[in-house]
Write a structure and sequence with these properties.
Blueprint (H helix, E strand, L loop, with lengths): L5 H6 L8 E13 L4 E12 L3 E7 L4 E8 L3 E7 L2 E10 L4 E10 L12 E5 L2 E5 L19 E10 L3 E4 L2 E7 L3 E12 L6 E4 L2 E6 L5 E5 L4 H7 L3 H12 L7 E6 L7 E3 L2 E5 L1 H4 L3 H10 L8 E2 L6 H17 L5 H13 L18 H18 L1 H14 L4 E2 L1 H33 L10
Parallel strand pairs: 1-10, 16-17, 17-19, 20-21
Antiparallel strand pairs: 1-2, 2-7, 3-6, 4-7, 5-6, 8-9, 9-14, 10-13, 11-14, 12-13, 15-16, 18-19
This protein binds zinc ion (ZN).
The site of zinc ion has 4 residues, from helix 6.
Organism: Georgenia muralis
Pfam families: Peptidase_M1, Peptidase_M1_N
EC number: 3.4.11.2
């Protein structure tokens, strides 16, 4: 499905455009931590998807100083509200390639959203960027919709002695008189909400190299607690690689902020936790949840927020899988306990189309996980886990919809048990995803 569908627009109508695709973001930024001042140039490689006289980018709260375009004649630009609109001298054809450079700066602040502040946020000492779902325009001009994935080069010059992280691989670090320039390259297609910067007084602690390098970036005071919580992280990574297929990125970094955070959040190749999550009972559950997003959300990214259960249902089910594998309560027992709990709550949410205000409703997480458990019980373990690996393999680095998952599940069922099983799988998924009433779990 193209990014420019009506349902996409209905979920976040003010963000992004289906008329363009950004192929690459080159961000050359300087940041002074104490006054919280960000200045720099963002150069976007933009492909048009239709004939157009204007293009609109998302940028909130910062001041645009200059715009230059190669590939078309720019007559004027205006930055009003959270939109930067460029007007050209004549129609630009469908499929044209433009290079758009925006010099901008100011004091970045998080954007308001129904789910609280999102985007660039100052910490006690440093910065955290957690943009899900709509915070990316708080720090760079972008086409802010989840299905429009791009590669990135992020150069950040920041006063010493701060540790500076962005998504992707560190390709250069240059010391200047009082500042250091850190250059990260992200070669995997990445959604704007997963682009990130983390700045703090951190040290980097290796957790292991197999099957991919894993590390925690943490303030010294929280190092021991982080290592305790993450003692089995390599085992977790190996298990997820077995059940979900190959890990999609070059490595994985957990960041722990000195500040307390309400919830952990995923970024590309990275997750961000608050110091409070280290001691929490919840820590053991949140670590597998966040890691699972590297497959479900980051490699396979929803084409529209409508399909959010493909992120959160899968990450929540991953918590149950790890519990069972690591010697805790079994997935079946956790599923039955949650089924009983949800049975007592009002069921008015349609998982496959929850409405824009309810994309982070707890029912998306728990009913999403239960949907997968119902599917597992219908298909059998072997076919279910083959389906998960086929799903992550077929759509690796792409964008996905619920319809695509249902088609693949039906195909897998047909191979396993013919049209009768395919029909049963379809009925199970319709009941769990498209109807508000809580179905019974198969086999109960
Ligand atoms: Zn999640």
């Amino acid at each position: 499905m193209s990014a420019g569908t009506e349902e996409t627009d209905r979920y976040e109508p003010a963000h992004g455009s289906g008329s363009i695709h950004v192929e690459h973001y080159d961000l050359d930024l300087t940041y002074r931590v104490v006054p919280n001042v960000l200045v720099g140039v963002a150069t976007l490689t933009v492909r048009t998807r239709e004939e157009m006289r204007e293009i609109a980018l998302d940028l909130a709260g910062l001041t645009v100083e200059k715009v230059a375009v190669r590939g078309a004649v720019l007559t004027r630009y205006r930055h009003r509200g959270d939109k930067l609109v460029l007007r050209f001298a004549e129609e630009v054809g469908d499929g044209a390639l433009l290079e758009v450079s925006v010099r901008y700066g100011g004091r970045p602040v998080p954007m308001d959203s129904p789910w609280g502040p999102v985007g660039w946020e100052e910490l006690e000492e440093g910065v955290l960027v957690a943009s899900q779902p709509t915070g990316a325009p708080s720090w760079f001009p972008c086409n802010d919709r989840p299905g429009d994935k791009a590669t990135y080069r992020t150069s950040l010059t920041v006063d010493r002695p701060f540790f500076v992280l962005a998504h992707g691989e560190l390709v250069a670090r240059k010391e200047r008189s009082s500042a250091t320039t850190w250059v990260y390259e992200e070669r995997h297609p990445t959604a704007t909400y997963l682009a990130t910067v983390q700045i703090g007084n951190y040290e980097s602690v290796a957790l292991g190299e197999q099957p991919v390098p894993q590390r925690v970036v943490v303030p010294a005071a929280h190092r021991a607690a982080a290592q305790r919580l993450l003692a089995r992280h390599c085992e977790l990574m190996a298990y997820f690689t077995e059940v979900f297929g190959p890990y999609p990125f070059a490595g994985y970094t957990l960041v722990v902020t000195a500040d307390r955070l309400e919830i952990p959040v995923e970024a590309q190749g990275m997750s961000v936790f608050g110091s409070n999550h280290l001691s929490d009972d919840d820590g053991a559950r949140l670590v597998p949840h966040e890691l699972a997003h590297q497959w479900f959300g980051n490699s396979l990214t929803v084409d529209s927020w409508r399909h959010i259960w493909l992120n959160e249902g899968f990450a929540s089910y991953a918590e149950w899988l790890w519990s069972e594998h690591s010697g805790g309560e079994s997935a079946d027992s956790l599923a039955r306990a949650w089924h009983r709990r949800l049975g007592g709550t009002g069921q008015d949410l349609v998982v496959s189309n929850p409405g824009p205000e309810r994309i982070f409703d707890d029912l998306i997480y728990k009913r999403g996980a239960l949907t997968l458990h119902a599917l597992r019980r219908t298909l059998g373990d072997e076919a279910f886990f083959e389906l998960l690996r086929a799903w992550t393999g077929r759509h690796r680095y792409g964008t996905v919809t619920t319809g695509q998952f249902r088609a693949l599940a039906a195909h897998r069922a047909e191979l396993e048990g013919g049209p009768a099983l395919a029909d049963r799988v379809d009925a199970v998924l319709t009941a769990w995803l498209d109807r508000p009433r809580l179905p019974a779990l198969p086999g109960s």
